[in-house]
Amino acid sequence: MSLSSAISTAQLILSNTSRQTQVVSQNIANAGNADYARRSPQLQTSLGGAELITITRAQDQLLYKRSLESNAISTAQNTVTAGLERIRSTLGGNDFELSPSRYIADLRDSLQALAAAPGDLTLLTSALSGAQDVVNSINQASSETQAIRLEADQAIGRGVDTLNGLLVQFETANNAVVAGTRTGADVLQELDQRDRILREISSLIGIQTLDRGANDLALYTDSGQTLFETVPRPVTFVPTNGFDATISGNPVYVDGVPLDAGQGAQTTAQGELAAHLQIRDEYAPVYQSQLDEISRGLVTAFAEHDQSSPATLPDMPGLFTWVGGSVPAAGVVEPGMAATLAVNPALLSSMGGDPALLRDGGINGASYIANSAGGQGFSALLDSYVTGLDAPIAFDVSALAGNSASVIDYAGNSIGWLEMTRAEASIAAENRDAIYIRTQEAHSNATGVNLDEEMSVLLDLEQSYKASAQLLSTIDEMLNTLMAVTR
Fold first, then answer.
1. How far apart are CA 388 and CA 108, in angstroms?
2. With left for phi above 0 and alpha for psi between -120 and 50, is residue 144 left, alpha or beta?
3. For residue 465, what are the CA distances in angstroms to 13, 219, 425, 455?
4. Statement: the pTM of the whole predicted model exceeds 0.85
5. pLDDT, tens only, 29-57
6. What sign does the CA torsion over 133, 138, 141, 144 have?
7. N-to-C CA span, the chain
8. Which residues pair with 253 in a beta bridge?
């Protein structure tokens, strides 16, 4: 080997070592960056015999796609669980102290006490106060349930705006990757950026990717709608300003196709959008229907009956009334009834009513008076109310809390349905979070930065640098000797 070729070799080794050290240093600097894939400097020999450094990016497409899917599933499950927790909060704490079930039971106890002493004005006032507590509980729960639907609708609107913005960012990153791939440019940073955007998109909606060559990707939802193919496809949604039991929210459209809401406590949803749709359109409406059915049961249990013989007049609302002003048909939910449930004004002194009508009957006129003799000790009507609260009646099966039960039992069934659903969703959230964490760890182990490995590579590079430095030192000595001889 000539001195000139030795010098060239030493310079090439130093240059390659410097480039490798730069890549390893970049890896170390990004050790905590979840959106960074490890770079590997590879020494290759060109056709001319020169040794060159090429930089490769660690990737595992199977694990990456699995991580996107598990992210979408875990995010959706946690969103559903949070929504159910929000609904549960309307019941109070662990003892459900704000639930209609608790207040109805208290009302029954007050009526039993009043039935034992029908002429006690204090007990009568207490019973009416208990009835008002029942109404307040149901009205408040209905209002909060519709507020939960509105919150979910607003979250959907924000999510759609974010998704459309991410699709625009994805287009920019994808175009840069494709253009760089076709010209042979370094696109490693652009690939990292595109993967980061995909991860953010997957938290909003389940996605599938399709490689179309030259590192070009097309995006589809988990159910097949096109999200991106050369250009972003529109994701549209019209928010609703307010909700009641009769108002349905608008769908989310992906490229003109409605997005399916999730189903079940272990939800089929992927991403936040489908999960929020499920809370808005499934769980909150079901709970609202249960509140409406409890309200209908109360109006029915306390309805006044025509005391004439023979009876010809219809049953009419007694202690409890609502905006419909009648006793609803059995077994059929009245949407929104819980929001308008009220204590009958005819019993309230503050509204010019007579509280004694609760004991005697006649809220709806003389034909409905049960205590025709006007005795202060009359308790038959009060006893019938207590019995009515414990008597089974028909409920709408679509409300998912049973089709036949007493009002008190049905209110308890509503709590049971919510608690069972919430518990199932919570367990599923823990399991799916664990799967997501394990998938992320596996992907990180395959493509992330391991500081121990990087430091080991740095030690090897240090030895390479020392060897090239020693070669240069030897060449320098030889040149000095040669120059001394030729003087």
1. 10
2. alpha
3. 8, 46, 58, 15
4. yes
5. 778 788 888 877 876 665 444 556 777 78
6. negative
7. 24
8. 236, 258
